[in-house]
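Predict the structure of Divergent protein kinase domain 1C.
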Amino acid sequence: MRRSLRGALRCLGVKVCRRSALLVILLWLASWLFLNGLVFVHRNMFSDFCTDDKSKEILQRVCDEYQQGVLTGDLCEDLCVAGRVEYKRCLYYENGKKVMAASWRGVPIVLKSKLENFSSYEALALLEYQDTAGGMGGEEELSPLDVIFYATLEIKNSLGLETGTNLTLPRLWGQKLKENERTYSRAELASLWALLQQEEYTFLRVLQDLTHHVAKILGSCGHFYAVEYLAAGHAWDQHIFSLEELTLSPSPNPWGGQEKMITARDMVPRVALSFLEMVEHFENDFSHHLHLCDIKPENFAIRKDLTVVAIDVDMAFFEPKMRDILEQNCTSDNDCNFFDCISKCDKAKNRCGPKRKNSNLQVICEKIFRPWFSPTLLGAKAGLPLQVELQRAVQECAEIDGGEDAKHMWAVRKQLQDLLVELIQEDTGNQGEGQEHKMRRVHTALNF
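Done. Here is the predicted structure for Divergent protein kinase domain 1C.
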């Protein structure tokens, strides 16, 4: 009896020891995973956490390098010496990109740079050659044609446009460089080169003279550039855009006539028309079709005249670059999705097609128009015949493959345009207003 009891106690002790050892091992493993998780989160999130102190430190480094003659720009003097640029707050950091709110001589602006430090950008090879030439008995000067040539190559490479024999810059840059018969300092060339390595800057700088649907660049200092401040949309807001802010004071009437108060609800169809105008403009008025691959409210804003503006164009590509991006290896159609730009997988070749399957308008209808004109948001007006017809047109637009049936997509866009104009007529009671409205297209071409 005693032996059996001792044996039972011994077995129980062994089991308890084993369970205790197992619990210790599991606890150690859980602690290890937790600590490594914290390190991962810290490295990937908190290391790029947006703070005012860090933003001010970054701008101070920019000013220090300006004082040392390393970088320059038309914004530097006001930012670093005259104090006419007032820092407001940090907006966001994302994958190295720094975005801050400020005011320049009382005008709200946004300061942007793809990388934090000026030294992180690739140096201009011409400056290295200049150093070599200078060490052999004198500094060799760069002519305006040298600047035009190399800047144009960088623009073409950044935007994904073919490099042809016509190597001229957009008229604003090219004309300035040709008129100024002078050499350019190291700081000027290095600053220009750092800016040209930022796709968004290049895109906005080239297009701002060709379309009113992109944010305007107002100035730069080294690798940081200033764009006009506009309130962006919000995915979490059922109204997407805070249109109420634009109704606080009379604004210029984009449809002609005197200034007048427009309610937020009346603004929606007008802003929707501006979206349609932007789509048509991006598709038809440049040398190549312009694709927007990240369509969401946060990437658009509205000016006082109700013009829709693309304010974040990191994922905007002209047709040549779009084809290069889409044409990848695949095993199914899911492998051919590049954010909002998708194509089909040719399973015989295991290769994605270079042609985009959907379109800018199709995605805008799905992500912008459908929430805007939903029965939930419209309330009692949702059952009105014109609203029902508009909802159907939006639904058809969101489901059609615009890249495959361009003619059908044009008809759907035309139907949306007519319905929106009719809705404006109905809301304002001015039957002549919509009839006189025409899309404000800027007939230009990117002829590099």
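Residues 243-436 form a domain with the Transferase(Phosphotransferase); domain 1 fold (CATH 1.10.510).
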